[in-house]
Amino acid sequence: MAPPQSTGPYTAVVTGASGFVASEVVKELLIKGWNVRGTVRSLSKHEKVAHLEALGKALPGKLTLHEADLLKKGSFDQVVKGADYVFHMASPFLAEWNDTQKELVEPALEGTTTVLESVAKSKDTIRRVVLTSSFAAALKMKSGPSNGKLYTEEDWNTDSEADKEGGYMYSKTVAEKKAWEVSKKEGFELATIMPSLVLGPVTGTRPDGTSINVMKGIVEGESAELPFPFVVDVRNIAQAHIQAAVTPKAKGQRYLISNADTVPNGAVMAVLKDRFPGLKFKDAEQEERKPVLDNSKVREQLGISIIPYQDTIIDMATTLIQNGIAKPQKK
User: Is residue 271 part of a domain?
Assistant: First the structure.
């Protein structure tokens, strides 16, 4: 049972607050006037949190930043104490790694356990936890969706292993499964958000995070490849996290969130070339877009209107250039 309804602004903890997706959640919560406690690995790296501090000054809510270590037991005890909601968003998303177990699986698994054990100690006040999982936790590259047609929230990734090829997908799968296990054992409410590749406008001025670096390379004419042909807008992800926290029927639910059809590299490059005709971009093969997942649950239960991928690509490229992160080549 959830704690009684609190009065006044809610207090939310956002782990990994300086990340691309988490920063957008922080921004949306502050716009709503919430009290936000953001956790980061180190407060001494000011350049990594400067964009958060700017949001805190510019927006109505109250932001405080706290150091916490995902791999240190008890590190989140104090920051979650007295909070209404916890958004656990901190997890590695690496383009390259050497040791799958040490660099991906252990941080994802241990980090989730560390945060949720702290939540369990304060479960009398915490109304719900929203975990950032991934479409990767449902995606089965070998066997395909269970219903033979489109992926849904009923799917679990049973194909990936802790190896070089499937390590990231495996890490997201075991972390989400661990979250459901701890939630059931400790008796607190949980909902999970499962985005595909998250793109969209950036708030900071640093090339931090895989999504930003991938698009930076594309905008600078160095690459024409997304790591996955499945795209979702960061603004939709932030909306989905918040709605999953406050919507009663979201208790105990998983939510896939993405454009329902694939977004091939050729489609991305076509959008950029059309919007920025004076810039130099690489060519990519034009492929047909194919339906891959059913996003009706997140639309109907959480009221999310999926932003078209064209807007996502244009807005991300525009802010990367405006913020000085990407330096495109003119024709």
Answer: no
- Look at residue 208 and tell me if it is in a domain: no
Instruction: Classify residue 318: in a domain, yes or no.
Output: no
Nearest residue to 302 via CA among 250, 228, 227, 263: 250
pLDDT along the chain (331 residues), means of 10: 60 96 97 97 89 96 96 96 97 65 82 96 97 94 85 93 74 94 98 98 85 96 94 98 98 98 97 98 94 97 98 98 96 89
DSSP letter assigned to residue 269: H
- By the 8 A CB rule, do 317 and 272 touch? yes
Token pair listed for 330: 């003119």
Contacting residues for 102 by C-beta, under 8 A, at least 6 apart: none
User: Could you tell me how many residues make up the chain?
Assistant: 331
Q: What is the pLDDT of residue 262?
A: 96
Distance of alpha carbon 178 from alpha carbon 165, whole angstroms:
22
Structural domain span for residue 138:
11-196+232-260+292-306
Q: What are the tokens at 8?
A: 């006044």
Q: What is the CATH number of the domain that holds 185?
A: 3.40.50.720
Angle between helices 210-219 and 309-322 (to 10 degrees): 80
Please count the structural domains in the chain: 1
Give the model's pLDDT for residue 167. 77
CA 261 to chain centre: 19
Angle, helices 20-31/234-246, rounded to nearest 10 degrees: 60
| Orientation of helix 265-275 relative to helix 309-322, angle to 10° | 60
Long-range contacts of 271-275, Cβ-Cβ distance < 8 Å, separation of 24 or more: 271/309, 271/310, 271/313, 271/314, 272/218, 272/219, 272/313, 272/314, 272/317, 275/314, 275/317
> Which residue has 């716009």 as its token pair?
31
How is residue 237 written in tokens? Answer: 């992800």
**Contact indicator for 317, 239 with CB cutoff of 8 Å:** no
**Largest Cα–Cα distance in the chain?**
61
Q: Is residue 282 part of a domain?
A: no
